Amino acid sequence: MMVSFTRKRLYRVGSRPLEGAVDDVKQLAEAVWYRGYRPTQAELERLRSVMSREEFLRALCALELLSQYPVCRRDTARYLQQLTRHFHRELLGNDDTPVQGRYSPSKRWGLNDATGPLRKALLPLQTRTYADAKGHHHGLRS
What we know:
Layout: H1 5-14, H2 22-34, H3 41-50, H4 53-67, H5 74-92, H6 105-108, H7 116-122, H8 128-134
């Protein structure tokens, strides 16, 4: 199987608990938020075939988490949320995404992974100053 760099990153994100995959999630965040990476359903199906159920759920959880940040372009956020909802219904039999307010994606995906360290590590990457300094296109523009 030919694996793209970003798909390989998504595989690495899922391969261990999120608190241990901080650097990989940060690189995935850069790809999603600033370089326009949007995994296709077919791409995720290929990943699913080579990952354990828990690893795949973890990768989906990370994508859903990244879609929640304002720095994620609205069209990308909607796309990722639709994609992750599809797999959530397929794998867990429901789609209980809260319509508003904060929630824990890891709990929603049935994982025990702590996301606090990950959220803290993502803070510097999701500021307007960071994005503008790098010349990235992002969701924080008015």
